[in-house]
Amino acid sequence: MTQHQRFRAAIVGCGVIAESAHIPALRAEADRVEIVAAVDNDPERLADFQQQCDIQAGYTSVAAMLAVQKPDLVVVCTPPMTHADIAVRCLEAGVWVWVEKPPCLSLAEYARIEAAEQEGGPYASVVFQHRFGSGGRNAIDLISSGALGQPLVALCQTTWYRDQNYYDVPWRGRWETEGGGPSMGHGIHQMDLLLALLGEWAEVRAMAGRLARAVDTEDVSMAMVRFTNGAMASIVNSVLSPREETYIRVDLADATVELTHLYGYKNADWRFTPAVHVRDKDRIASWTDIPADVSSSHSAQLPYLLDAMQRGERPPLSGPQGREALELIAAMYKSAFTGVPVRRGEIGPEDPFSQRMDGGSQPWP
């Protein structure tokens, strides 16, 4: 049996996502990780979180926590505008980081995080848990191996509903604090999964609009994306859709792959429809022959991060891989606000859309 090192973890930000997703994930790996501290700038919320989650040490600043606890891993669950500073501070202190989406407000901030990493660790990994469900891993493997034929056409829809009360939280719906609208805060998970299924994108043409919510950012975005393998995809991100659904469809030469869920999937949420010329029943059955049923969740992703920490290797969804969805979204915004197509690699460090997702412009009155 492999002997695992037991790591010390601290949670920064004591809101809903920490309690509902990260605490269960960390508890599920209790033989490998111990929660030693919680951090929140609201003392009342911190105390309540400590009591509910049975965490002995609490701090109102990251600096104070790092000085005393010296954890191996910090889990960042704070609002997006704080992610980059917290991640950099922790990395510079020699601490690995697992940061909630969006990882930061811009490509420029992500570059700061990358620059603070060290060879062999510490590294910062982004929470993109939908790559890690067993159904998703199966679909990624089938497509990348060529078992379903050439990828041709795809749809990626995050059509959710958030009323105006949702945006009463001061940092939501603002470029300088959330980084963007549903593209950054909601659809980013499914767009990351689409990238895992189809690989590198090559060109984006997009539109974005503020149609119904009193926000600074968009409340709807749409994009057409061409991938380097030739596949073409349509992406929709919305917070205006009363019937909520998360949907991905990939049409390949030999099959259509579909995923329908809302906030997380199981194996049964994936569907495979063979093309008319595919009649081998054993081949078709093999597409859904998955030994385990692991839901897409924080609990599914965390073991991969702990394994990388154990080996001193770069974890999944860090560095260039963690940047992929952010770069696609930046290109979507640039195309939407300039009215021109954007190609992969076009947004360099000096580009306004590297500094801010809105490019420093005012996209609408």
From TrEMBL:
SUPFAM superfamilies: Glyceraldehyde-3-phosphate dehydrogenase-like, C-terminal domain, NAD(P)-binding Rossmann-fold domains. It comes from the Bacteria. InterPro entries: Gfo/Idh/MocA-like_OxRdtase_N, Gfo/Idh/MocA_Oxidoreductase, GFO_IDH_MocA-like_dom, NAD(P)-bd_dom_sf. It holds the Pfam family GFO_IDH_MocA_C3. Residues 7-121 form the Gfo/Idh/MocA-like oxidoreductase N-terminal domain. Residues 139-250 form the GFO/IDH/MocA-like oxidoreductase domain. One of its GO terms (molecular function) is nucleotide binding. Residues 344-365 are annotated as: Disordered. PANTHER family: D-GLUCOSIDE 3-DEHYDROGENASE (PTHR43249:SF1), UDP-N-ACETYL-2-AMINO-2-DEOXY-D-GLUCURONATE OXIDASE (PTHR43249). This is Predicted dehydrogenase.
